[in-house]
TrEMBL record:
Residues the record marks as active site: 85 (proton donor/acceptor)
Keyword annotations of the record: Acetylation, Transferase
Similarity comment: family membership: Belongs to the MYST (SAS/MOZ) family.
One BP term from GO: regulation of DNA-templated transcription
Protein name in the entry: histone acetyltransferase
InterPro entries in the cross-refs: Acyl_CoA_acyltransferase, HAT_MYST-type, MYST_HAT, WH-like_DNA-bd_sf
GO molecular function: histone acetyltransferase activity
């Protein structure tokens, strides 16, 4: 299915080694596929996502962000530090950078001086992905001292203010809609998640301690 919409996608493996997490929209006529992501059942590299796809009619509704968030919430339950398979597509990099920025900077707003290990363990984002995100974001001034990360509060506050303004704009746009039923943005509620990880050998994953 993904091959129909993702030009860069190639097929090397059978589907048997993967789990597929499918998101559907339900109405009176039944369930309709809107997107999915796949994940290796046993990943030696702790990949928490192999392929992600939102079908074109359902894009720009936050479904990609929903699926990325779900993949990391599953990673937290598994108690591992995960990362998506690389390389990412151009759209994939944008989606993940947005997710990583929000998660990392929200954590740093409460812990402006923390170790990289603490940041990684709390967010389940790998050190490489954290450093890539911080380096990419030129508005954030930071430096490392060993395994400790320091950020200038001024640049962090400026970023969080920009995020707050963006969220207020989204809320205003939704409230200004004449027909609020047209607001079909997908939101993730972790309290609704019910999932148990498949059994793994201790050698197959590096667990958080």
């Amino acid at each position: 299915l993904a091959k129909l919409f993702l030009d860069h996608k190639t097929l090397y493996y059978d589907v048997a080694p993967f789990m597929f997490y499918v998101l559907c929209e339900v109405d009176r006529e039944g369930c309709h596929l809107v997107g999915y992501f796949s994940k290796e059942k046993n990943s030696a590299d702790n990949y928490n996502l192999a392929c992600i796809l939102t079908l074109p009619p359902f894009q720009k509704r936050g479904i990609g962000r929903f699926l990325i968030t779900l993949s990391y919430e599953l990673t937290k339950i598994e108690q591992i530090i995960g990362t998506p398979e690389k390389p990412l597509s151009d759209l994939g990099r944008l989606s993940y950078r947005s997710y990583w920025e929000d998660v990392i900077f929200n954590f740093l707003s409460e812990n402006p001086q923390c170790s990289l290990d603490e940041l990684s363990a709390s967010t389940c984002i790998t050190l490489d992905d954290i450093i890539w995100t911080l380096k990419f974001h030129q508005g954030i001034e930071f430096w490392r001292c060993g395994r400790t990360l320091y950020l200038k509060k001024r640049s962090l506050r400026a970023y969080l203010q920009k995020v707050a303004e963006r969220e207020r704009k989204w809320a205003s746009d939704r409230n200004s809609s004449q027909d609020k039923s047209t607001d079909n943005t997908v939101q993730f509620d972790v309290s609704c998640l019910r999932w148990s990880p498949p059994l793994k050998s201790p050698k197959q994953s590096t667990r958080l301690t």
